[in-house]
Amino acid sequence: MSRVLIIGAGGVAGVVVKKCAMLPEYFSEIHLASRTVAKCEKLQEEAGKDRVVGVYQVDADQASEVAALIRKVQPDLVINVALPYQDLPIMDACLETGVHYLDTANYEPKDEAKFEYSWQWAYHERFKEKGIMALLGAGFDPGVTNVFTAYAAKHYFDEIHYLDIVDCNGGDHGQAFATNFNPEINIREITQRGKYWENGEWHETDPISVREDLDYPNVGVRPSYLLFHEELESLVKHFPTLKRARFWMTFGDQYLTHLRVLENVGMTSIQPIEFQGQKIVPLEFLKAVLPNPGSLAEGYTGLTCIGTYVTGLKDGKEKTIFIFNNCDHAACNAEVGAQAVSYTTGVPAMIGASMMLQGHWMKAGVWNMEQFDPDEFMERLNKYGLPWQVVECDSPFKR
Ligand code: NDP
């Protein structure tokens, strides 16, 4: 018997719900709650009422509301696929009720575009004392990229030195401008200053100012820009031999031109402004007029390619490997009615949950993905829709 409560009913949640519903051997009972209950009902309809047995309205900014719902549903695990703002109230509710927790993105305060693990790592002792576990960042990046790194370190190297995580969306959704996951969270992330780790310290760069043209398997050459991404913070902590760790994401010229215009006219700001007698946040308004990422799936073509270049030493010799997955937008739509960015996030969340519920990864405290043995998780990626490959290659990056 394994009962899960999934919170959130957006693009990623749709994939988590449907993949969990396909696996009654791991998830015997699924409950779904979100801010807008109609979205839960729609997903329940699509996944089957025999599998999603309860839907609920909840404001997950309120820990007390979440705790009351947990008491009613009595789940073994809460899967948080709402927004990063809800991480702490949901963790508080899990602590209060003694239930395990999993999420896909680290906490961000709503009024400051800043993300770091300090807030969630601060729960470690309390989760440990309560005898419950939190698994943080169980999406693709963060998530699978952390596990790829752990797998490389375990099977291919004696010591790892250089890490470059690369995230390419080579797909085409046919829209002039759209984001592939929650627009507010996405735009906050990419308009921040870039940051990477080198020789024991963080170095900052102007936003989207450092470019490499990288060749992605089955996609081709794409302009890729250095960004700060949350898994860098945990990976440099847990792999202290790393001399440098960076993250790269592809953006097309059309996307960047739109983004620059939106920034220049103030539409990406999170400072509230007065508009016709009420306060509005420009970025929240922008989110309301942009396409819903979940709606992009129909007609989306092409592949994503997300992976991890690792360079290090094996038997005294330096080598580089690239571990990656290609994911096809159209195939994801055919399987679960989602585009590949939601799919590549939702499938690892489902797998992470199955690993916890079956006891493969179960340890009281707050943990990142790379802190567990990677092998069974890697097996399950192959089995449940995200097959990966490892190639030995020359590093495409300069020292
Ligand atoms: P969406 O905006 O599509 O969905 C978010 C859902 O959360 C919506 O259903 C929304 O409700 C619900 N929600 C928001 N606020 C509350 C609240 N206060 N109480 C209850 N429910 C709430 O986002 P995505 O599905 O695109 O993203 C989900 C998460 O996945 C995000 O945290 C994102 O950062 C993360 N992510 C992680 C990735 C990774 O690889 N690790 C990659 C992509 C995303 P409503 O429908 O009412 O708006």
Summarize the entry for a quick read.
Helices cover 35% and strands 28% of the residues.
Key words describing this protein structure:
2 domains, 28% strand, Dihydrodipicolinate Reductase, domain 2, 18 strands, Rossmann fold, 7-stranded parallel sheet, alpha/beta, globular, 9-stranded mixed sheet, 399 residues, binds NADPH dihydro-nicotinamide-adenine-dinucleotide phosphate
Polypeptide structure, described:
- By secondary structure, the protein is an alpha/beta fold.
- The protein folds into 2 domains: 3-136, Rossmann fold, CATH 3.40.50.720; 144-336 and 385-393, Dihydrodipicolinate Reductase, domain 2 (2-Layer Sandwich), CATH 3.30.360.10.
- The chain has 14 helices and 18 strands.
- It has helices at residues 11-21, 37-47, 63-73, 87-97, 118-121, 124-130, 144-155, 183-190, 230-238, 253-264, 282-289, 329-336, 340-357, 375-383, and strands at 3-7, 29-34, 52-57, 77-80, 100-103, 133-136, 159-169, 194-198, 201-205, 211-216, 220-227, 244-250, 273-275, 278-280, 303-314, 317-328, 365-368, 388-393.
- Strands 7, 8, 9, 10, 11, 12, 15, 16 and 18 form a 9-stranded mixed sheet that branches. A 7-stranded parallel sheet has the order 3-2-1-4-5-6-17, sandwiched between helices. Strands 13-14 form a two-stranded antiparallel sheet.
- A hairpin with a 2-residue loop joins strand 15 (303-314) and strand 16.
- Helix 1 (11-21) packs parallel to helix 2.
- It is globular.
- It starts with a strand and ends in a 6-residue tail after the last strand.
- The mean pLDDT is 97.
- It binds NADPH dihydro-nicotinamide-adenine-dinucleotide phosphate.
- Residues 8-13, 34-36, 39, 58-61, 81-84, 86, 104-105, 137, 139-143, 181-182, 185, 293-294, 341, 345 line the site of NADPH dihydro-nicotinamide-adenine-dinucleotide phosphate.
